């Protein structure tokens, strides 16, 4: 999430208001972003030797934590 905020700041030069960030975090767009991010981390783990089923499980649990299930 911090990298997303940093990216938005570097792109626009504007701070993201805390209220806007909090409300975005529960949106469908945010949930899609979280799931895609978790999957990308799983892919990276597999690329460096982690077992695919372990990496997939880690990604699923991480996505569930950030998306509420």
Structural class: mainly alpha
Compute the separation of the termini in Å: 18 Å
Q: State the assembly state of the protein chains.
A: single chain
H-E order: HHHH
Gross geometry: flat
Strand content: under 5%
Account of the protein in words:
It comes from Corallococcus coralloides (Myxococcus coralloides). This is Aha1 domain-containing protein. This protein has 69 residues and is mainly alpha-helical. It has one domain (2-67). The chain is built from four helices and no strands. It has helices at residues 2-12, 18-24, 28-47, 52-67. α3 (28-47) packs antiparallel against α4 (52-67). The mean pLDDT is 89.
Question: How are the elements arranged and paired?
Answer:
Elements: H1 2-12, H2 18-24, H3 28-47, H4 52-67
Salient structural properties:
69 residues; mainly alpha; 78% helix; flat; Aha1 domain-containing protein
Q: What is the gist of this entry?
A:
This protein has helices at 2-12, 18-24, 28-47, 52-67. It has 69 residues and is mostly helical.
